TrEMBL record:
Source species: Phytophthora rubi
Keywords recorded for this protein, A-Z: Membrane, Transmembrane, Transmembrane helix
ATP-binding among keywords: no
Gene Ontology MF: a single term: trehalose-phosphatase activity
Family label: In the N-terminal section; belongs to the glycosyltransferase 20 family.
Name of the protein in question: Trehalose-phosphatase
Length: 952
């Protein structure tokens, strides 16, 4: 049994219908399908009735009284149309005010700073300021006084129109939701609905939403001038697919996302581009709209006298006008053009070029006629009237100078709209050469046309001359080159249906829903949807306290920065006090003296944080008390991990008894009660000679990239470019990695390039390795913990989460593992908290419960408690561990053929093999590394997967 056709909700600004007043009708209106070019495009998007069933959602082209809305809606539903009724003032501010006044010029890369509108303060007369915003929609809306100038750079008017633009998008969203059924497709057309995907995603989680922009997307430098730039981008990225006419428009969109949101994209095997945003994948495609050739041929072949009598009359009228005053037997060449009467179509520039063409080619004055059909607009009346004045003035002057008596060389006529029939009948069965602006999208699509710069009059005049003198064969070849490209596939699947099929193929919401969970984040314009791994939930403090209380062996691994303490801006009063107390002003000035830029040392707490504009706050007294409570329990082993240097950790945590520390990204470990730090690297066999050369190169790049800086640790160097220009920073980071691969010897250090930074650190050194060592020691020499809590907030903590999960998979004694990240974001952790306060509250709750439930039996057996057994160990980093790690590093060096060791991809957590020749040995390399002491407790079947995640 065949499946029913899938409904496609086609959302357009104006329904492709014609409304005529008829008092005898139940609704008061006669409604029929429109025959305009845009209307025909929408009507022919999907034609396969067995596969798709279109349902149009949009506004009527007329304003309807409230009393007529119900009857008219019923009448439109019979035509598969759902009307959206808007109040006239709101509709005008939405369309003329924001769509045409703000978005239209900006999206066409038109910048007019302050010259197009009179700026006023908020305290000025609002009635005078907004008098034009509520005009009445009728024939008078096209007069000069009905509307003021575009509001692109008028903040007061722009804010009011923006509010109505969002309000109309919400109204459309309600109508879409009312009409939607499971499995339907939602197709949004053009820039009128940039905010609509956000409103739809809030209520239709499983709907496939695609958006197609028929207008260009502006350059990022122009788009960033919009006050609501970020809100628009985030809303657009709530769609599952975004379509553009050509790649240039898509490239501008991708660049804006890169510079404003820090997002990257990658290619797909199906030819689309993919951008990941908050765990969701947005597909981006570039495809031109194809005309419905079958419909056009039907208009040519069938008898048009009755159906399109007006079109035939129009064609005859034009023919009589251009032959007046001329010899009827003389051959004439007609240059025809149909354009909107507005500045962006450059009709005055075309007339200037035609005037120069006639002046420089007097032999053509009697045989060439320019027929210019202008479409009158009321959406931008000032622009329309200004352009119309130029056109009438130039037309009159050119005809006065070059036209024969009673005739014209330029024929200009205005129409409210033109139909496909008028255009086809006017120039049917006569192929000609196309002259297009090189700024037009179709100059990239129609390779058989003559592309010109409309601002260069001589080039346009030369194009007219070349078109007039072109041979028949060249015209024929150029015409059919364009024709075949445009309609080459029209006999197969229509363009709209192909696009929908591609979108359905790459956007499987059912499969995505089973592979993760979708969570709403933010409110208002900050609303977005994030996709997480299944089981990612908010931390349940009560459940956490219960699990920890019931366990007799507990391990706490807590990150320092961003988890136990927050940061403050050095420009704020609080941050300035912390930065001044933490170091003397002379040291800061010395570190950042421009004359000493290449010689000064950069430390994490001083230089790096100062360049970043932030300083880490010291832990609060409450946090210190909570840590002391946890460490005082004999069944607890507590570790604090950090990338910070040892001295900074000792300053903050040295006074807390029984607290263990992991410093400098896992290079050093210190057990409680011991003043000595243990290094996971054997100093006799492993040196840091690579640091000097690497630091020299990274400093040079930091000096040449504005906004970047270098952070130095004992075992690592970090080049941070998150505050620099995103595109330039990416280019510089790629070049830096290439330079470092030639400098750093294989097996000594690892180069890791991630989003916003490039890190070079000692091979085999990371917080994940240090935590894995602790777990291994506990398993072999003490006992496996029953409860483990791991809390962190950054990318290095993600690898710790993965290592602990891998360890727990093969340890039945480990009953409860709680991994928690600070902040709601895609993570390898199973839980999240919103901020630092929440995790401190959870630690306080655990401490209070442990004090209340500590039994006398546990106190009596205190000498044999979990913590004391761990502290009795002489050392954590054994010689066997160092020897095993050294063997794995040498093995890594030999397998990598002299190249840099393991490297992470900037877009994924997958390993990148430095040379293709070594790819065959990559799986064996992963198993070899993890076979040693780094993750000795992990099962062999899991080792390679763990290596891919955290070893680098």
């Amino acid at each position: 049994m065949p499946l029913p056709p899938k409904t496609v909700l086609i959302v357009v600004n104006v329904l492709p219908l014609v409304f005529e007043r008829n008092e005898a009708s139940a609704s008061g209106w006669d409604v029929s399908w429109a025959t305009g070019a845009i209307a025909m495009l929408y009507r022919t998007l999907v034609k396969d009735a067995d596969k798709y069933s279109p349902l149009f959602i949009g506004c009527p082209e007329v304003f309807v009284a409230k009393s007529e809305e119900a009857a008219l809606e019923k009448q439109l539903l019979a035509l598969r149309c759902v009307p959206v009724f808007l109040d006239p003032p709101v509709a005008h501010r939405y369309f003329q005010g924001f769509c045409k006044g703000v978005l239209w010029p900006v999206f066409h890369n038109v910048v007019d700073v302050y010259n197009s509108a009179e700026l006023q303060l908020d305290c000025e007369d609002k009635k005078k300021r907004h008098a034009w915003l509520g005009g009445k929609k009728d024939e008078s809306s096209g007069v000069k006084s009905a509307w003021c100038d575009p509001v692109s750079w008028n903040p007061a008017a722009q804010d009011m129109c923006w509010s109505d633009y969002c309000s109309v998008n919400r109204t459309f969203a309600r109508r879409v939701v009312e009409s939607y059924h499971d499995g339907d497709l939602v197709w949004l057309h053009d820039f009128h609905f940039l905010m609509l995907p956000s409103y739809l995603l809030r209520r239709l989680r499983t709907a496939i939403v695609t958006m197609y922009l028929h207008v260009p997307f502006p350059s990022s430098e122009i788009f960033r001038c919009l006050a609501m730039r970020t809100e628009i981008l985030r809303a657009m990225l709530c769609a599952d697919h975004i379509g553009f006419l050509i790649f240039e428009h898509a490239r501008h969109f991708l660049t804006s996302c890169k510079r404003l949101l820090g997002l990257d994209y990658k290619t797909c095997p199906n030819g689309m581009l993919v951008m990941e945003y908050n765990g969701r994948k947005i597909h981006i495609s570039c495809s031109h709209v194809e005309p419905d050739v079958t419909h056009l041929h039907e208009m040519l072949d069938q008898n048009q006298a009755d159906a399109n009598g007006a079109a035939l009359d129009f064609a005859e009228h034009v023919k009589n006008a251009i032959t007046a005053g001329r010899d009827p037997t003389q051959h004439r060449l007609v240059i025809g053009s149909v354009d909107r009467v507005e500045g962006l179509t450059a009709i005055p520039l075309k007339l200037r070029a035609f005037d120069r063409f006639l002046a420089t080619h007097p032999e053509k004055r009697g045989s060439v006629v320019l027929v210019q059909i202008g479409i009158a607009l009321d959406s931008r009346p000032n622009d329309y009237h200004r352009t119309r004045e130029y056109v009438l003035k130039f037309t009159e002057e050119i005809n006065r100078r070059y036209a024969p008596p009673g005739g014209v060389v330029v024929y200009f006529e205005e129409k409210r709209k033109t139909t496909c029939a008028e255009r086809v009948i006017l120039w049917h069965r006569s192929f000609g050469i196309m002259i297009v602006s090189e700024f037009s999208a179709y100059s990239r699509i129609l390779s058989g046309s003559l592309a010109v710069n409309p601002w260069k009059t001589d080039d346009m005049a030369a194009a007219f001359a070349k078109a007039c003198s072109m041979s028949y064969y060249e015209k024929h070849n150029r015409f059919y080159m364009n024709y075949k490209f445009l309609v080459g596939r029209s006999d197969a699947t229509p363009w709209g249906e192909r696009l929908l099929a591609d979108i359905e193929a790459v956007t499987d919401k059912t499969q995505d829903a089973s592979s993760g969970e979708v969570v709403q984040v933010g409110f208002g314009f900050d609303f977005r949807v994030m996709r997480f791994e299944s089981g990612f939930v908010s931390l349940d403090v009560d459940d956490l306290v219960k699990k920890s209380t019931n366990a007799s062996r507990r391990l706490f691994i807590l990150d320092y920065g961003g988890t136990l303490s927050s940061t403050a801006s050095i420009l704020d009063e609080e941050g300035a006090q912390y930065s001044y107390r933490g170091e003397c002003a002379d040291q800061v000035l010395q570190t950042f003296d421009v004359s000493d830029r290449y010689g000064g040392e950069c430390t994490v707490q001083s230089a790096a944080r100062y360049i970043d504009g932030k300083v880490r706050k010291p832990i609060s007294d409450e946090t210190r008390a909570n840590l002391k409570t946890l460490c005082a329990d004999p069944c607890n082993i507590v570790f604090v991990t950090s990338n910070t240097q040892r001295a900074a950790l000792e300053t903050q945590f040295g006074s807390i008894p029984n607290l263990n520390l992991i410093a400098e990204n896992g290079l050093f470990i210190r057990k409680a009660g011991k003043g000595d730090w243990e290094c996971v690297c054997d100093d006799d066999k492993r040196t840091f000679d690579w640091k000097d050369d690497a630091k020299r190169v990274m400093r040079a790049y930091a000096a040449r990239t504005n906004g970047s800086f270098l952070v130095e640790n004992a075992a690592s160097l970090l080049y941070d470019y998150r505050n620099s220009d995103q595109e330039y920073g990416e280019i510089q980071s790629l070049e830096l990695c290439a330079q470092l691969r030639h400098i750093v010897e294989s097996g000594e250090a690892t180069i890791n390039r991630a989003k916003g930074y490039v890190e070079v650190h000692q091979s085999g050194v990371s917080k994940a390795v240090a935590v894995s060592l602790v777990l291994k020691v506990l398993k072999e020499q003490v006992d496996v913990p029953e409860f483990v809590l791991v809390v962190g907030d950054d990318e290095s903590d993600e690898k710790v989460f993965q290592a602990v999960h891998a360890f727990a998979e093969n340890e039945p004694k480990l009953e409860h593992v709680v991994t928690c990240t600070v902040g709601k974001k895609p993570s390898s952790a199973k839980c999240y908290v919103d901020n630092i306060t929440d995790i401190l509250t959870a630690l306080h709750a655990i401490g209070v419960r442990l004090r209340l439930t500590r039994s006398r039996i546990r106190l009596f057996q205190q000498p044999r408690t979990y913590c004391r057994q761990f502290l009795k160990l002489k050392c954590l980093v054994s010689k066997e561990f160092l020897q095993s790690l050294d063997r794995e590093m040498r093995s890594l060096s030999m397998l990598s053929n002299g190249s840099t060791t393991v490297t992470l991809s900037p877009d994924t957590d997958e390993l990148l093999c430095p040379h293709e020749a070594a790819s065959a040995n990559w799986a064996a390399l992963g198993a070899a590394v993890l076979a040693g002491c780094v993750l000795g407790a992990v099962a062999a079947s899991q080792r390679h997967r763990v290596l891919r995640r955290f070893f680098t």
